[in-house]
Amino acid sequence: MTKFEALGLQQSLLDAVSDMGFETPSEVQEKAIPLLLEDETDLVALAQTGTGKTAAFGFPLIQKIDAASRTTQGLILSPTRELCLQITNELQSYAKYEKNINVVAIYGGASITEQARQIKRGAQIVVATPGRMKDMIGRGLVNISKIDYCILDEADEMLNMGFYEDIKDILSNTPQEKSTWLFSATMPKEVSIIAKKFMHSPQEITVGSKNSGASTVQHEYYVVGGRDRYPALKRLADAHPDIFSVVFCRTKRDTQKVAENLIEDGYNAGALHGDLSQNQRDLVMNSFRKKQIQMLVATDVAARGIDVDDITHVINYQLPDEIETYTHRSGRTGRAGKSGISMVIVTRSEMRKIQAIERKIQQKFVHNKIPTGPEICEIQLYHLASKIKDTQIDKDVENYLPAIYDVLQGIDRDELIKKMVSVEFTRFSNYYNKAKDLNSSVSKDGNRDRSGQRGPNDNGSVRYFINVGEKDGYDWMSLKDFIRDTVGLGRDDLFKVDVKDSFSFFNTEAAVTDQILQTFTDFKVKGRFVNVEVSKSPGGGRRGGSGRDRGRRKDKGGYGKKRHDKKGHRGSASHSGKRRSTKRSDFF
Ligand code: ADP
Ligand code: MG
Q1: Ligand nearest to the CA of 208
Q2: Which ligand does the CA of 54 lie closest to?
Q3: Residue 406's Cα: distance from chain center in Å?
Q4: Which of 512-551 are b and which e, b meaning 16 or more Cβ less than 10 Å from the residue's Cβ?
Q5: Cα→Cα distances 204→34, 183, 207, Å
Q6: Which residues sit with their C-beta closer than 6 Å to ligand 1?
Q7: Residue 444 to residues 219, 222, 363, 449: CA-CA distances in angstroms?
Q8: Ligand 1, from 18, 23, 33, 54: best to mutate by most atoms within 8 Å of Cβ?
Q9: Which residue lies with its CA nearest to atom 18 of ligand 1?
Q10: What was the pLDDT predicted at 114?
Q11: SS3 for 261?
Q12: How far apart are CA 151 and CA 249, in angstroms?
């Protein structure tokens, strides 16, 4: 294996490398560092997100900077404030044994005078977002007319974000004779235009195949009915108790809504989108970095700044319009040599897009099933067991133990384990044991799988007759709650609830018919038989329904990770038919 010493880095930088814990250079570093150190050359380097591009340009840049001069010699343009700060921090650590090298970050949303002051003190390296940079050039607060090196980092993302004009402007303020290094994960047309226009016979480095997602990322898709996206998301989270993920939605509204729902359902979630103030976004990002947030729901634009290494899962709650965007999303996981999973929740009509993405990233998707209730219970219980096993014993707990031993006296180990597990199991199974299968049965080419099994999305929903109605004090909401809670169904499982005077109708998917009929066999309320039969009346189809309750339907409940325990919060919503008001997230 080539070590960093072989790349031509000076001792002070090698010391920093070892302090950072880097042992072997990544491929892009191995290729770029010697080349940039030896030659004054323009360079186009394509490598996936998380492959260590910062060090690939950072180390050569620092080695080449003249620390004795205070002139700004290197400019790094980067798409977001978060990345700017990240690069600045990295560069400062690389330069820790170099005296007198100043790296200054310039980005919007912070005091321009303070940034100008830092520049004035002498910054050999400036790391900037294009917008703020242009602004500062315009006001004469920074001088880049003498730079030797210009680095366009995450060039594809900068262009994606519409910075082309700004970049052009900024480059026109730099000298002709300088080296330009362009780093990018992908090479869309816009990037090659920049390379052609502003670079002189650049050398090229490509790591992995162009345009392909990082190979450490596994791509999976899950096919569900359109209204099952949210419950499917929850199950994916529940099936991965240690999930640390970014959930991508298409719009700010969906982003906010999904995050709020997750929070309300007890998950550690947060929203990141452009309608939040910079301060709110910082709060969310800090909690995410500290893993207080396990599921960060984000728009594509807002997520550009996320540069957190150990994201385990990227979840595409909805697919993006552009395939390129998918590459960016999935590149948020599988970073720094770790493996990651990119999950896509799709409906049958979106299946074609999966194939288009496969062609583009030259990787196959795995078609997985949304886990069933029992599968999730099993995972959660194993998780609980191993968590107990790995838990550090808190010294303070000693004080309470005598009393606890008293209470648990006479219970042997086996029984104790059974009881302990049952505490959790009951909670899981109450929520999940009757939960329906969310998978739309399809084959990969988008045709319905005709395996003959009566899946929940086999269009035919079933209409029922029930012998209670307005006279018994029900309206459609309270009747829906009553049936749902009695049978143990999810909030989405009942629809077209039609309350008449002394009887009512409602629909469910065929998959839960047996369960409903069984529950209402010999079922009495206040001494009176409540009877449910499959209705022969027309109007059983899902389509053409009144849609009255469609907008309100929301799968609530689920047991989430952490319960913000409020009475009746979980799985035991009140029978009154009153809706809980949506709680705002802790972050707003
Ligand atoms: P990219 O810009 O290609 O997306 P980064 O430069 O942000 O990737 O690096 C991703 C992560 O990998 C960072 O946390 C960085 O510190 C780490 N890293 C970079 N090079 C190495 C290396 N040679 N060995 C170990 N970790 C590395
Ligand atoms: Mg980078």
Answers
A1: 1
A2: 1
A3: 46
A4: bbebbeebbeeeeeeeeebebeebeeeebebeebeeeeee
A5: 13, 10, 10
A6: 22, 24-26, 29, 47, 49-55, 307, 309, 335-336
A7: 14, 11, 15, 9
A8: 54
A9: 52
A10: 96
A11: helix
A12: 31
pLDDT at 49 over 80: no
Q: Compute, in angstroms, the gap from residue 336 CA to the centroid of ligand 1.
A: 5
- 220: closest CA among 200, 201, 206, 240? 240
Most confident of 188-192, 302-306, 504-508: 504-508
Cβ contact 484:513 at 8 Å: no
Give the count of alpha carbons within 13 A of 415, CB side only: 5
Neighbouring residues of 501: CB distance < 8 A, sequence distance ≥ 6: 469, 470, 471
Ligand 1 atom closest to residue 58's alpha carbon, by position in its atom list: 6
Contacts of 425 (CB under 8 A, 6+ apart): 377, 381
> Which pLDDT score, from 0 to 100, does residue 441 have?
64
In the chain, % of residues over pLDDT 70: 85
| Cα 537 to averaged position of ligand 2 atoms, centre (Å) | 62
Amino acid 457: pLDDT? 36
Q: What is the pLDDT of residues 194-240, one digit of tens each?
A: 899 999 999 999 987 543 444 578 899 999 988 899 999 999 998 88
pLDDT one-digit tens code per residue, 360-375: 887 888 888 898 887 7
Cα separation, 405 vs 402, whole angstroms: 5
CB 248 within 8 A of CB 316: yes
CA distance 364 to 347: 18
Q: What is the pTM of this model?
A: 0.48
**C-alpha distance across the termini of the chain, in Å:** 50
Rounded Cα distance between 293 and 243, Å, is 10
Per-residue pLDDT, 574: 30
Ligand closest to 79 (CA) is 2
Strands (E), 485-559: 495-499, 504-509, 524-525, 528-529, 532-534
- Which residue's alpha carbon is nearest to atom 19 within ligand 1? 52
Beta strands in 163-261 (DSSP E): 179-184, 203-206, 217-223, 245-248
Specify the pLDDT at position 323: 85
pLDDT at 551 over 60: no
Q: What is the pLDDT of residues 504-514, one digit of tens each?
A: 888 888 888 98
